[in-house]
Write a structure and sequence with these properties.
Length: 451
């Protein structure tokens, strides 16, 4: 009888098979590598905050250069103009008594301001020429309160303070009660740089009041503003500037802004301001800064800025604040694609993708200094998305995952551009957008077999 060996004898595992302990060790090793990769990607994304801050400093530097160019052109052309006056300065006969200033009862100013564009390096600077007509009247009732023995009425002067006397484009003649007075430049202890002419108040006060008018051609840069020194101050300005910025304590009572320019009217009463008809010291009501412009103690000044809107630096600054969000979402998406396809992507290649995402902001900055911001945004986005999509298509050896990441970047850049154009609802829209992105990330992560 033939005896056969038992069939249930233990056999050695065939090649390619693993024991349960080996499978367990392999699973742990895979989990460790996965966790390590996540940590490396996270560290890389944090490391990219350094060049992000460097680019932000570059944007601020270019913005400061633009401001400096504007200041240099203003120094050569003429600084912003601040008009205070006319006022009558009555000198005292004793050093112990302060000079006194009589403010007009009525002050009416009309002006036409024509702006033009000058160039300094790559920067555009707005300057202007203006023709002002100033008219009104003085009342002598307030002088009855003064002790005439303390003041020299015959040595009085009518003064108009300007922010920059270099801005005068022609000689100035002041007419008082039909009599013309030629005005010259001077410097007043309180008003600073002024144009002035002498008047004999002993003769003028023989009448109940005095009417005056003066025409001035002045040029300046950045702004023009006024101090409402009259019992009733009225200012009416027209200009070809289509981007005015009305500022100060008093906004126009009427204004109309079109693509061809603006027209604005201010009206301020003495009751609205802290100035009195007789002033002994302007420093009690005004503070003089280094530019010889006057800022009311209570913000009495009003006027208009006619600067070119330099929004590209502000838009670039707002844009780069979203850089880390884009980097984090792109890295997370690439990691998901890497895990699903099984094709390993080296951390250096993640770093290259991150650098490309940051280089986008230098492209955006450089283009926006020469062409419109929206065109710069489109060009810089197209270049960056095209580069990263092509790079990932080569790495993953599949077009679909790379195109999906490219589509994500198109969505992100498009969404951020919408946020940049919004002001009132930017925070709300951004918060909702981030919520949707987080929900999508949670959904995708639930489909992953992490272990």
């Amino acid at each position: 009888m033939t005896i056969y060996p038992e069939e249930n004898q233990t056999m050695n595992p065939t090649e390619g098979q693993k024991m349960p302990s080996e499978k367990k060790n392999g699973s742990k090793n895979s989990q460790f590598k996965l966790g390590l990769k996540i940590v490396i990607i996270f560290v890389l994304s944090l490391f990219l905050l350094i060049p992000q801050n460097m680019i932000l400093r570059l944007i601020n530097e270019r913005d400061n250069n633009s401001t400096q160019a504007e200041q240099e052109v203003g120094q050569m052309w003429s600084r912003g103009q601040t008009i205070v006056g006319p006022v009558i300065m009555i000198p005292s006969v004793s050093e112990k008594v302060e000079d006194i200033y009589l403010l007009p009862e009525e002050l009416d100013i009309t002006g036409d301001i024509q702006t033009q564009k000058l160039h300094k390096s790559i920067y555009d600077v707005s300057v202007y020429n203006s023709d002002l007509e100033i008219a009104g009247g003085f009342k002598w009732d307030y002088l009855a309160k003064l002790d005439r023995s303390k003041y020299d009425f015959s040595g009085a002067e009518i003064m108009i303070s300007l922010g920059d006397l270099r801005g005068l484009t022609d000689n100035v003649n002041l007419t008082v009660n039909g009599q013309m007075h030629k005005m010259g430049s001077g410097k007043d202890r309180e008003l600073g740089d002024v144009i002035t002419c002498s008047v004999n108040l002993n003769e003028l006060t023989l009448r109940d009041s005095a009417v005056y008018n003066v025409s001035m051609g002045i040029k300046g840069s950045k702004y023009i503003r006024f101090l409402p020194i009259g019992g009733a101050t009225s200012v009416k300005l027209t200009s070809n500037c289509a981007t005015p910025n009305f500022h100060g304590n008093y906004l126009p009572v009427t204004r109309e802004v079109t693509d061809k320019g603006f027209e604005a009217t201010w009206k301020v009463l003495a009751l609205n301001s802290s100035l009195s008809p007789l002033m002994t010291s302007w420093r009690s009501a005004c503070i003089e800064d280094s530019g010889n412009s006057w800022v009311g103690e209570d913000g009495e000044m009003f006027g208009v800025e006619m600067r070119l809107p330099v929004e590209q630096y502000q838009q670039n600054t707002r844009s780069i604040k979203y850089a880390y969000l884009i980097i984090a979402l792109t890295f997370a998406t690439v990691f998901f694609m890497e895990t699903r396809t099984g094709i390993r992507i080296h951390p250096i290649q993640y770093l290259l993708v991150g650098i490309a995402l940051l280089l986008y902001y230098t492209l955006l900055l450089s283009f926006s200094e020469h062409i419109a911001f929206y065109l710069s945004y489109i060009i810089a986005s197209a270049m960056t998305i095209g580069l990263i999509t092509t790079f990932l298509a080569v790495l993953l050896k599949k077009k679909k995952p790379a195109l999906m990441i490219g589509g994500l970047l198109v969505f992100l850049y498009g969404f951020i551009y919408i946020l940049l154009q919004m002001e009132t609802y930017a925070l709300l829209a951004g918060s909702i957008g981030l919520f949707v992105v987080l929900a999508l990330a949670m959904f995708l992560s639930s489909k992953m077999k992490w272990y």
